């Protein structure tokens, strides 16, 4: 299959919402070139985000059901849910390691542009974050550390090379702050990252082109929503401990 055919089939799978197929096709395309195009990078991101996103949502449902069954003292039902959850965790692990291996072995070493390097570093952070969501013990520590390092690298490169309003720079800050809140359980640090990014972009909003306005303001809205939620939680915690 040629690179062009693989991209075509990936887009076809996207329209049909066959995310696993889309991931397989776009892997063929990006592995056949030393520096995939922006369109190909976006297709890769969409494919894995959706195929893993559906399983992450399922994992959250199973975790809630497991907690409920435990609270009811239903040992047999709890064991069945645990088996389903563990099976799903194996699927998530395989998918995350698959994309992380592709990034480490093929995409990062040959990345030519600053934007592609930032893009890949952010992806590495994302997929280690997804692994950290259900990992425990030493595995959790390892995944969290690798996610934090990747986000830090992406943030440094983005801050040095992209405008504060650039969607990729905003996206790095958004996901980095979510990591601090969800994985590190550090809402203060999450607020710090989100606020710095939002305020920096707000100061340059007038310079945004019409083309980039929608993407940038959408991510800014997500940053603001998270910031308001986390700040309110911090204030409530401070009130309770006062």
Automatic annotation (TrEMBL):
Q: What InterPro entries does the record point to?
A: 14-3-3, 14-3-3_dom_sf, 14-3-3_domain
Q: Which family does it belong to?
A: Belongs to the 14-3-3 family.
Residues annotated as site: Interaction with phosphoserine on interacting protein:
56, 129
Report the protein name in the record: 14-3-3 protein-like protein
Q: Name one Pfam family in it.
A: 14-3-3
Gene3D superfamilies given in the database record? 14-3-3 domain
Residue span(s) of domain 14-3-3: 3-240
């Amino acid at each position: 299959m040629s690179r062009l055919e693989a991209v075509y089939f990936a887009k076809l799978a996207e329209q049909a919402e066959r995310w696993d197929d889309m991931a397989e096709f776009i892997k063929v395309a990006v592995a056949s070139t030393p520096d995939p195009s922006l369109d190909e990078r976006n297709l890769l991101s969409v494919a894995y985000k959706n195929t893993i996103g559906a399983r992450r949502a399922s994992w959250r449902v199973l975790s809630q059901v497991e907690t409920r069954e435990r609270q009811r003292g239903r040992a047999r039902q709890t064991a069945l849910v645990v088996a389903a959850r563990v099976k799903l965790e194996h699927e998530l692990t395989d998918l995350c390691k698959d994309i992380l291996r592709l990034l480490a072995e093929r995409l990062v070493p040959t990345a030519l542009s600053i934007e592609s390097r930032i893009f890949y570093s952010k992806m590495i952070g994302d997929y280690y974050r997804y692994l950290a969501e259900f990992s425990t013990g030493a595995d959790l520590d390892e995944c969290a550390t690798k996610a934090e390092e990747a986000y830090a690298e992406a943030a440094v490169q983005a801050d040095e090379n992209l405008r504060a309003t650039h969607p990729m720079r905003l996206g790095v800050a958004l996901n980095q702050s979510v990591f601090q809140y969800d994985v590190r359980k550090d809402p203060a640090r999450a607020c710090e990252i989100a606020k710095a990014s939002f305020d920096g972009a707000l100061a340059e909003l007038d310079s945004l082109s019409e083309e980039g306005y929608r993407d940038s303001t959408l991510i800014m809205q997500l940053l603001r929503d998270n910031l308001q939620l986390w700040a309110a939680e911090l204030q409530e915690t401070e009130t309770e401990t006062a």
